[in-house]
Specification:
Length: 380
């Protein structure tokens, strides 16, 4: 037996289909328990509440919201999606093979484009056992209660089993991994390395006789169906983006799509993708104690407190050309004849940037915020 994790009762949320509910309260006591084992979530603006069920849903296209099929009564039912600052009406479409546990996915086709929010994207590839994920929802914090309902929370867990139509995750005995509660149904499981990549829709919890695992519906299996329901061209796979569609996704930036993404603000401690240092130019830590300088002798040198060199590229004596934080993620020192004389060896990480930090380390981070290279000069 499996237990749905939606609230299919009123819960005193005071809304009707087609009517915007009262704003969701965004604060909670720091002592309050969290989704089960999660934390308050001030991000993920594409995640909101769907009505009349009060489940969680995710905006995955300008006019497309994904939630659980058991959060709807039938195809054709009118509904409402509410984000942080707006609500838009729409019509539900259940997966044609929903049975009530398999293919537990539905689309809320919005009447018009949801304003001011970048849609999440959908996995178009099979998830794997061991993948880390982020659980997001508005559900309760104590099972079989309404405690904590209506406040967005997030937490982390990992996939422990993948089946043909779903995957499962578990609650560890120490309470360090987040799991879903009633009201989280329809909410997203985001793949940790790509923060806007939805890999699953939260569906149900097995009873303890059948393992007690939490079950999510795989979105990759229904990817083509979801795209086809609304014909919404802004519904994209996690590795895809369309330059020129006016949406700046997490793997887009000014460096590869200036028509969609604004230039990054000037930051003297950073080299952004595509940015070049010419001889005599430098990047300086926010506290001013460390500076990375491309010298006229061809050497790239990290200094501490003035003239004490703590790292260099070892390119002294080469003709000085330029140092580039390339859009492929590689930091490269070139001669004037375009000969590479040193690199960080971090190509294959588009969208990476370099940061000169206050702790003395200079680090290259990829677009997901993971460090791919450093000078190894922390902590000073």
């Amino acid at each position: 037996m499996r237990l749905p994790i939606s609230f299919l009762v009123a819960l005193s949320i005071g809304c009707e289909p087609g009517a915007a509910p009262a704003p969701v309260e965004k604060t909670a006591s720091a002592r309050e328990p969290t989704v089960i084992h999660g934390t308050l979530d001030s991000g993920h603006p594409a995640v909101g509440l769907v009505y009349p069920s009060g489940c969680t849903g995710t905006l995955v296209g300008r006019r497309t919201v994904v939630t659980a099929a058991h959060c709807t009564d039938q195809t054709g039912q009118r509904g409402l999606f509410c984000g942080d600052f707006a609500c838009v009406d729409g019509t539900y479409v259940r997966h044609p093979y929903y049975d009530p546990y398999d293919n537990d996915v539905a689309v809320l086709a919005l009447d018009f484009a949801f304003p001011g929010v970048t849609p999440a994207r959908l996995a178009n590839f099979r998830p794997r056992v061991g993948w880390n994920m982020i659980v997001v929802g508005f559900g309760c914090t104590v099972w079989d209660s309404s405690l904590g309902y209506g406040i967005k929370r997030q937490g982390r867990n990992a996939i422990d089993e993948v089946n043909a139509l779903s995957f499962q995750y578990d609650e560890d005995p120490y309470g360090s991994q987040a799991v879903a509660c009633q009201g989280d149904s329809g909410g997203p499981n985001f793949w940790d390395p790509i923060p806007d990549c939805e890999i699953g829709v939260m569906s149900n919890r097995q009873d303890w006789l059948h393992g007690g695992d939490w079950v999510s519906t795989r979105v990759d299996v229904s990817f083509d169906w979801i795209r086809g329901v609304t014909g919404d061209p802004s519904v994209l796979g996690c590795n895809n983006f369309v330059c020129g569609d006016g949406i700046c996704h997490s793997n887009e930036g000014y460096w590869n799509c200036p028509s969609d993404c604004p230039p990054p603000p000037y930051n003297p401690s950073r080299l952004n993708p595509g940015q070049t240092m010419l001889p005599g130019q430098q990047a300086t830590s926010a506290d001013g104690r460390f500076r990375l300088t491309y010298q006229s002798d061809g050497n790239l040198v990290l200094y501490q407190s003035g003239s004490w060199a703590i790292w260099s590229s070892g390119t002294y004596g080469t003709a000085a050309g330029r140092t580039v934080m390339q859009t492929d993620g590689n930091l490269v020192v070139y001669t004037p004849w375009n000969q590479a004389v040193w690199s960080s060896g971090t190509y294959g990480n588009p969208g990476s940037f370099l940061n000169v930090q206050n702790d003395g380390n200079t680090v290259i981070y990829n677009a997901s915020g993971r460090a791919t290279w450093s000078t190894g000069t922390c902590c000073r």
